[in-house]
């Protein structure tokens, strides 16, 4: 038996019990034998990115803690909605705090955009993650349109096609971690 891989999951939504958070928890349950998932729950507590503070002794403690969690993880799972055809500001802000680092360089990543539409947000997420050199492939990317009608409040995926896609994505992400 292999050791479980440590995965840091980041929800791009700041809403309590969002569809994205429920989807993250569903993936954690599907991969419970292979991964130990920690949900980053402080995205709304990160200060606005300020390059004058980046990599100085003035680096905010919330940013230090966030970076430490990324460094300690074997892989990153991002599940985000799309806001106004792009990434939510809170997620973009969190990722901007990492641009000047190599924290994501070749770190395995699973990238999900789960929203009403999501196409432009999904493109933006891939572009940012490619720029910071995260390691992902076509099998570790998933776009789920109309998520609110496909997952219930308990985190059960109610659409068979979506459930199959999430299961395939999860298996591919676990494979990328190994």
UniProtKB/TrEMBL annotation:
User: What SUPFAM superfamilies is this protein classified in?
Assistant: Flavoproteins
What positions does the domain NADPH-dependent FMN reductase-like occupy?
Answer: 6-131
What GO molecular-function term can you cite, just one?
FMN binding
> Would you tell me the Gene Ontology cellular component terms?
cytosol
- InterPro entries in the record: Flavoprotein-like_sf, FMN_Rdtase-like_dom, NAD(P)H-dep_reductase
Q: Which Pfam families match?
A: FMN_red (PF03358)
Q: Which domain of life is it from?
A: Bacteria
- Specify the protein name: NAD(P)H-dependent oxidoreductase
Q: Which organism is it from?
A: Taibaiella lutea
> What are the leading ranks of the lineage?
Bacteria, Pseudomonadati, Bacteroidota, Chitinophagia, Chitinophagales
């Amino acid at each position: 038996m292999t050791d479980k891989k440590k995965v840091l999951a980041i929800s791009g939504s700041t809403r309590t019990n969002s569809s994205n958070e429920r989807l993250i928890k569903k993936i954690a349950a599907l991969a419970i034998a292979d991964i130990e998932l920690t949900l980053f729950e402080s995205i709304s507590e990160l200060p606005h990115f300020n390059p004058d503070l980046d990599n100085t002794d003035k680096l905010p403690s919330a940013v230090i803690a966030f970076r430490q969690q990324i460094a300690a993880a074997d892989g990153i799972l991002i599940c985000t909605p799309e806001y106004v055809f792009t990434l939510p500001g809170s997620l973009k802000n969190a990722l901007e705090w990492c641009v000047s680092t190599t924290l994501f360089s070749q770190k395995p990543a699973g990238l999900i955009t789960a929203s009403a539409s999501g196409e432009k947000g999904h493109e933006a997420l891939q572009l940012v993650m490619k720029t910071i050199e995260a390691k992902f492939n076509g099998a570790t990317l998933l776009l789920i349109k109309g998520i609110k009608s496909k997952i219930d409040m308990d985190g059960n995926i109610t659409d068979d096609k979506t459930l199959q896609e999430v299961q395939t994505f999860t298996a591919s992400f676990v494979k990328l971690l190994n």
